[in-house]
Amino acid sequence: MSERNEWERDTVVWLAGRRIEARGDVGPERHPGFEAWCAAAEREAAAARFAERVRARVASAGLGVRLIDRPPEPVHAETALASTLGAAPLVELGVAAGTGRELLEEPCEAWVALPPGVPSGRYVALRVVGDSMTPLLHSGDVVLVDLHGTAAVGAVVVARHPDHGYVVKRLGRVRAWGLPLESLNPAYPMLVLAPGAGALIGPVVLRWCGHGPTKPRLAPAP
Question: Is residue 80 part of a domain?
Answer without folding.
Answer: yes
